[in-house]
Structures are given as structure tokens and as C-alpha cells.
Design goal:
The protein is an alpha+beta fold. The chain has 7 helices and 14 strands.
Length: 282
């Protein structure tokens, strides 16, 4: 195993720098170019591409290509990555639609996997000037611009009726609505990017997130970095059948029902989710 502390110390400034690039475009919208990628892929902006180029160039400069492969939303996939144990999985901007709508809810995801599981993750939320980070066996932290770090932890809520569900405003379908109707909860809040949703749970500001794939599904770069932050903060992320997510496969979509939680009622939430959509599948 490589030294994750050394890797994190090199990767943190890259995440901050990518966030700065996004904010430059965010603050100067006249420079923003928007292009529709087609199909389920949505829009890509000049901000996505600029941040992507920066992240990849900086990571490759620091870590090279012999031991590490690279998978990014905005770069053509090279399946040679399947031959590598160490793979960087990157979303230069998670929440592009929120960026365009100017909701402040977008994030940079930089995750590192080892043998198909995340071991290090960075989620920058540039509009809030925050950097969330997690590293296997080392806990999860929130960092401010001055370099101060504070450890974060999921909430200690153990009763579903007290838990806050964080959901998407736009990526919803009939199956998800059925689950949310049957899931006991105290409240439901909307947050744009997946990174922001997971950061909310990891920080104890929310407790549950559920995704149900329809015609499309989230991809590796949506979950990789956020997962290790959530789990190091004490939370859990699994499929509804309790199996773990696997990354760096030929198929990049994470199909099915996926549940993230503070970990205290995870099995119960997964069972409710499966039961709620079972009649719909028939």
C-alpha cells in the first residue's frame, strides 16, 4: 500500500485549485460556454473542462502514469485503467446544472481507488470555500481556506422518525418517490450535488440519501470521493441488498437502489427501500 498521507498532502492543493477555477467562471458568467453533450449526459461547460484539465495535469505531474490510472467524466475513457490497482476517479464539477442555475450547490470530486474500492477522497464545495476529505482508517475532515481542519462525524440519531433525508431536486423518479413516501423521517431537504449530499450526512446535517436508477444511473465519479468521506465519518453506503459498490469496472454506471446513511438504521432503510419498489418491479 502506498503512503496515503503523502498522497493526500499532494492532492489537497489540487482540489482547492480546481475549486478556484470553477469560481472564476462562476463569478464571471460572461466567460462561460455551455454545450449539450447529448442523451443522458446533460451539459458540459467551459468551467468543467478547465477544471478537468487542471486536475488531470496536476495529478499526472505528481503521481505519473506507471502506478496510477485516471478516469474522469470529461475525458475519453481508456480501459487500460482496468489493468491498474490504483485509479484516480474524477468529476471536475458535480452539479453542473446547479452551477448553471447559480444555486451555489456544485462540487469537485477527486477520489482514489485501490483494487476497486475508495481509499482517499476530496470533495471541494467552492461556493462555501470548504474542502471535505477522507482517507482510509484516518477519519473525515472539513478544511477551511486558512488550512484549519476539523474532524466531522455523522449524527448519532438512531430513530428513523428523527432523521433528515437529503434528496435531489431534479433526479427523481416514481420508484424513489415511493420509497420516500414509506420511509419514516423528520424532514426532507434538497441539495444539488451528490458530493454536497454526502458531505451533509458526513457532517451530521442530514442522515439519509437514496438513489434509484431509471433509464440512467450515477457513475463512478459521482460516488467514489464522497463514499470514503462518508464512511470515514461513520456512515455507510451500499446497494439496497447491502452489497458494497465496486469501482473501476468496464461498466461505469452504478445501477439499482443505493443507500447512504449515518449507519445507525442502514439495514432498516435498505429493507424499506427494497419493499417499497418490489411491487413496482413486478
Amino acid at each position: 500500500m502506498l503512503n496515503l498521507n503523502e498522497i493526500m498532502s499532494l492532492a489537497r492543493p489540487i482540489a482547492w485549485g480546481a475549486g478556484d477555477i470553477l469560481m472564476k467562471y462562476y463569478q464571471e458568467p460572461q466567460d462561460l460556454e455551455i454545450r449539450f453533450k447529448g442523451g443522458e449526459e446533460g451539459n458540459v461547460t467551459s468551467a468543467d473542462l478547465a477544471a478537468n484539465d487542471f486536475i488531470l495535469s496536476q495529478l499526472k505531474q505528481s503521481f505519473g502514469t506507471e502506478n496510477f490510472a485516471y478516469l474522469s467524466e470529461e475525458t475519453e475513457d481508456n480501459i487500460d485503467r482496468l489493468e491498474h490497482e490504483w485509479v484516480w476517479i474524477i468529476d471536475p464539477m458535480d452539479g453542473t446544472s446547479d452551477f448553471i442555475r447559480r444555486t451555489n450547490e456544485f462540487a469537485v470530486h477527486i477520489g482514489l481507488t485501490y483494487r476497486q474500492r475508495p481509499v482517499l477522497g476530496l470533495v471541494a464545495t467552492p461556493a462555501q470555500d470548504r474542502l471535505f476529505q477522507g482517507m482510509l482508517g484516518n477519519g473525515a475532515y472539513i478544511e477551511t481556506r486558512d488550512g484549519l481542519q476539523q474532524r466531522i462525524q455523522v449524527s448519532n440519531k438512531v430513530d428513523l422518525n428523527q432523521m433528515v433525508v437529503v434528496a435531489s431536486r431534479s433526479h427523481r423518479n416514481y420508484q424513489l418517490e415511493s420509497i420516500l413516501q414509506q420511509l419514516p423521517k423528520a424532514a426532507e431537504i434538497a441539495v444539488g450535488s451528490i458530493g454536497g449530499k454526502f458531505a451533509a450526512i458526513a457532517s451530521g446535517n442530514a442522515d439519509v440519501y437514496i438513489s434509484v436508477s431509471g433509464k440512467s444511473a450515477p457513475k463512478d465519479w459521482d460516488y467514489c470521493a464522497p463514499e470514503i468521506i462518508l464512511t470515514e465519518a461513520g456512515g455507510q453506503l451500499t446497494h439496497a441488498d447491502l452489497s458494497l459498490l465496486s469501482y473501476n469496472n468496464l461498466e461505469l454506471r452504478q445501477w439499482g437502489t443505493i443507500v447512504a446513511s449515518n449507519g445507525h438504521c442502514h439495514h432498516e432503510i435498505c429493507q424499506i427501500s427494497q419493499d417499497a419498489i418490489a411491487p413496482i418491479k413486478k
